[in-house]
Amino acid sequence: MNKPVVSKQALGEPVPVPVPELTAAKAAVAGPAYVVLAGISFSHFLNDTMQSLIASVYPILKDNYALDFAQIGMITLAFQFTASLLQPLVGHFTDKKAQPFSLAIGMGFTFFGLLLLSVAHTYGVILIAASLVGLGSAVFHPESSRIARLASGGRYGFAQSVFQLGGSFGTSMGPVLAALIVVPFGQPSIAWFSSIAFLAIVILWRIGVWYKPQISGRKAAASARHPDHPDQRRVRIALIVLVALLFSKQLYVSSLSSYYIFYLIDRFGVSTQAAQLYLFVFLAANAAGAFIGGPLGDRFGRKYVIWFSILGALPFTLALPYAGLFASAVLTVVIGLIISSATSAIIVFAQELMPHRFGMISGVFFGVAFGIGGLGAAVLGKLADHTSIAFVYQLCAFLPAIGLLAVFLPKMPKAVR
Quick one: pLDDT band at residue 417, thresholds 50, 70, 90? Predict the structure, then answer.
């Protein structure tokens, strides 16, 4: 006679609840999808290389069209405001309905934006071209960050760092390519970089083919929540803190990225090409720091990496406005290494706070980063016109002190680190 089957729930025993670490454990067995990670990171490299060209050609545009610093800041704002405004909307939409080939389509906006910038002869057309490149970025970042997480094999910080490494290294290449190509050959040579956008379109289309069958599985995994996850009130506080920390980091980086060339020319009398190479050194250090931060967060906890990466840079940012040329180069390397290591930790921390809204959270934080950079560039440019570039750097040196807000971040469950 068969015994009746009695459920654990009827006996009062706890019933297993699906939580993120179960999904992470399964993914960890398979390990990271290295080919996909390499592809999405390389695409990020190509995307941010093209974006960084805009800031790198500012001296050329300034001379050709007699622009002041406020107008330079408005170009940055036009480019980054487009990305900032649309990224959260793109992320929210793809949370509800994934679009595996949207990355390739979005890169098409960058392609046309570069072509337009190469032939632009009025300030208005320059703003439109910059906006198109920003639109391509808005489509690219939220879903590509999700793909990096899907391909992580449970090593979320590592995957985000690999993804960020491509972007940071691409950003650092812009000044070098501008010095080697755009400065000698002029504004029309920007059109040559549209071939980079075409290459990115091809790669992203292939990644879309891999991503399409993953869509149904990632929806189930994203909906799970750890039982020790912070409550909604603490989640909201933590997200506000993370935005503030990103503000301190990104505004400082934006001040260097947009005006460091002018600072070096004004204070030390270096040439435009030499200043672009100094900017490359800082941005390359940013790339290295962005890669290091993610694995450290996986190992020691993201909160500690955030503490170190933002507050640790403070002594060096305070010293920078008073340093000589060589010492400035050394300090920017140290600052770039330390302050950029927060990027991956902040984004993964935010994703883990809202595991059912990866796209929207990625869009908000990438969008906030772009938006803060754009608004900051415009405000700092206006301030530089009324005071000096040196004063701007003295003021920005105190921004990392906002990192003290990290004390309000909650302790996350160990299993999802």
Answer: very low
pLDDT the model gives residue 318: 92
- Residue 259's nearest CA partner among 79, 389, 136 is 389
Distance CA 158, CA 163 (A): 9
Domain range enclosing 161: 31-416
Domains: count for the chain: 1
- Give just the sign of the alpha carbon dihedral 35, 39, 45, 48: negative
Q: Give the three-state DSSP class for 152.
A: coil
Q: What is the mean pLDDT of residues 106-115?
A: 89
Give me the pLDDT at residue 360, please.
Answer: 77
User: Is residue 9 assigned to a domain?
Assistant: no
**Residue 226 vs residue 278, higher pLDDT:** 278
CA distance 66 to 324: 29
DSSP string, 310-355: HHTTHHHHHHGGG--HHHHHHHHHHHHHHHTTHHHHHHHHHHHHST
Please indicate, yes or no, if residue 82 is contained in any of the structural domains: yes
Identify whether 26 is part of a domain.
no
- Which helix or strand (DSSP H or E) is residue 125 part of? helix 123-150
Q: What is the pLDDT of residues 130-168, one digit of tens each?
A: 899 888 888 888 888 888 888 887 788 888 888 878 887
Position 209, amino acid: V
Q: What is the pLDDT of residue 204?
A: 92
Give the model confidence (pLDDT) of 41-60 as tens digits.
899 899 888 887 777 778 78
Listed in sequence order, the DSSP H helices in 97-231 are: 102-119, 123-150, 156-177, 183-185, 194-211, 215-223
Asked whether residue 142 is domain-assigned, the answer is yes
Backbone torsion region of residue 224, taken as left when φ is above 0, otherwise alpha when ψ lies between -120 and 50, otherwise beta: beta
Structure tokens at 212: 């399409």
pLDDT digits 0-9 by tens, 315-342? 999 999 899 999 999 999 999 899 888 8
Q: What is the DSSP-derived secondary structure letter of residue 409? A: P
CA angle 331, 181, 69 (to 5 degrees): 55
Amino acid at 286: N
Handedness of CA 136, 198, 48, 205 (dihedral sign): positive
DSSP characters over 20-46? HHHHHHHHHHH---HHHHHHHHHHHHH
User: For the domain that residue 171 is a member of, what is the CATH number?
Assistant: 1.20.1250.20
Burial degree of 348 (CB within 10 A; 0-12, 13-18, 19+): buried
Q: Using 50, 70 and 90 to split pLDDT, how confident is the model at 8?
A: very low
Q: Select from 290, 278, 296, 303 the least CA-distant residue to 338.
A: 290
